[in-house]
Design a protein that fits this description.
This protein folds into 2 domains: 52 residues; 172 residues, Vaccinia Virus protein VP39 (Rossmann fold, 3-Layer(aba) Sandwich). The chain has a 7-stranded mixed β-sheet with strand order 3-2-1-4-5-7-6, with helices on both faces. It is built from 8 helices and 7 strands; from the N terminus they run ααβαβααββαβααββ. By secondary structure, it is α/β, with parallel strands linked by helices. It is globular, with a radius of gyration of 21 Å. α3 links the parallel β1 and β2. The structure holds S-adenosylmethionine (SAM). S-adenosylmethionine binds next to α3 and α4.
Length: 253
């Protein structure tokens, strides 16, 4: 049987929609050149062709939403070992990021596997199976366990985890949901444990390619997230941006 392939399953249009504009504008440019259009329409079409091509390259090779991400900070779970929770694991991108960067760690990949999963990754018979297939394709399935559950009311005992990661998941909730999830993260994390929170950010790459289209959490910036984390009992140690991403590394007090 062939080895399973990683397929995070983010929709095609995230990676390729800009190419539709390129495909429409380049022939238009050639037509305009052949028919000697005036300067302004040529300039307009040229700018759109240039932007859509550049945006496609950025989305495909810089943002690379279906590729394997690397940990945004090496300070997360520096000991390298322990039990990690991924809140909103989806098809496994963030779980695999942690398990590959920390080969001594184990991880519980938690997701509601409901409407939000379907909205992001499409309908499938068994979302858990899709997640498992990816964990297996990455060779980390033996250190991972899949759990269905709601991050606003986690099905775990207090202080059950050494570290928590959550990537592009908590920012999909409403304000109350965010508050509940962060309080739950603080409850199930051991004192002194790390929490790596990654949310979609209003940063230059995302603004260049998608404008406001991907901003689930509106204009909430680092100060807003820091405040929410502090209210939940975390101390923010580090923050920064990566393409599409604002990350905050927090420690449970
Ligand atoms: C955009 S995906 C992110 C998946 C993954 N963390 C990644 O980085 O690719 C958001 C995930 O959060 C999950 N989710 C949304 N609300 C949730 C909740 N209340 N409890 C658990 N998971 C939830 C969705 O099912 C979805 O799989």
């Amino acid at each position: 049987m062939p080895a399973p392939q990683l397929d995070f399953g983010y929709p095609w249009w995230l990676s390729y929609s800009h190419l539709i504009l390129t495909a429409a504008t380049v022939p238009l440019l050639l037509l305009g050149y052949a028919r000697k259009w005036s300067k302004w329409p040529m300039l307009l079409v040229g700018i759109v062709a240039l932007w859509s091509t550049a945006a496609f390259l950025v989305v495909r090779f810089v943002i690379d939403v279906n590729g394997r991400p690397s940990l945004p900070t090496q300070s997360f779970l520096q000991l390298g070992t322990g039990r990690v929770l991924d809140m909103g694991a989806g098809t496994g991108r963030s779980s695999i990021m942690v398990l590959q960067a920390r080969p001594q760690a184990t991880l519980v990949a938690l997701d509601l596997f409901g409407d939000s999963f379907e909205k992001h990754f499409g309908r499938s018979e068994s979302p858990q199976q899709r997640l498992f297939t990816n964990l297996k394709a990455a060779g980390v399935e033996q250190r991972a366990m899949i759990k269905a559950g709601d991050m606003r009311s986690l099905p775990f005992e207090p202080a059950a985890f050494d570290a928590i990661v959550s990537s592009y998941a908590i920012d999909h909730l409403n304000r109350d949901g965010i508050k509940q999830s962060l309080a739950e993260a603080a409850r199930v994390l051991k004192p002194g444990g790390d929490f790596l929170l990654m949310v979609i950010a209003k940063e230059p790459w995302v603004q260049f390619t998608f404008g406001p289209l991907l901003l689930h959490s509106g204009t909430r910036g680092p100060a807003w997230w820091t405040q929410r984390l502090q209210e939940a009992g975390f101390q923010v140690l580090e923050q920064g941006t990566r393409p599409v991403t604002l990350y905050l590394l927090a420690r449970r007090g």
